[in-house]
Amino acid sequence: MKKKDNEKYEKILNAAIEIIKEDGAATLSTTKVAKRVQISQSNIYIYFKNKDDLLKQIYQSEISDYQLRFHDILENSHSTLEKITEYIRALYDISIENPDSMDVIEQIKQIPDSPIDMNDVVGFESNPIVDLIKKGIAENILKDVNPNIYLTMIFNTIRMNAANTKNKQNFSSFDTLLDLFLHGILK
């Protein structure tokens, strides 16, 4: 049995991410990844059980920064509205730092028969952001709308803004987007 090499693991993961960014998640195959890394396809299976496992690990890799920031927000902010604002800020900041990340996440979630559970949007065992939005609704701060609609609206708007930033087109500042979101979600 061959020994796992962390550097090779990262190369495989990064090659797969590049393929997703260039051609889309639906086109990803272990054959393409192996060619990109210049290894035999069988070596991919030393690190990943199959293509679905590769996609899951890419997804997990991409959301790890979000998880850390969201955990800090939930632990450190005070009011529900403050936490929601900081959640939006964290998404915005990550999108500016790594504009491709949100697109990779979304592409993996949207492929037919995605290995990602759609309810596990931020990668926690339960979804604390959904719980936070539900709390905002219960506290009569937010309009009574399905929390997944809020998540989709915020995530996709920020994702599109990141794409505009990357393509050097018109993009909106955090304050502009925050104002838009708060006018749309607050009671």
TrEMBL record:
Look up the DNA-binding region in the UniProt entry and give its residue ranges: 29-48
HTH tetR-type domain boundaries: 6-66
Annotated InterPro entries: Homeodomain-like_sf, HTH-type_Tx_Regulator, HTH_TetR, Tet_transcr_reg_TetR-rel_C_sf
Which of UniProt's keywords are assigned here? DNA-binding
> Does the keyword tRNA processing feature in the UniProt annotation?
no
**Protein name as it appears in the record:** TetR/AcrR family transcriptional regulator
Q: Does the keyword Ribosomal protein apply?
A: no
Gene3D superfamilies cross-referenced by the UniProt entry: Tetracycline Repressor, domain 2 (1.10.357.10)
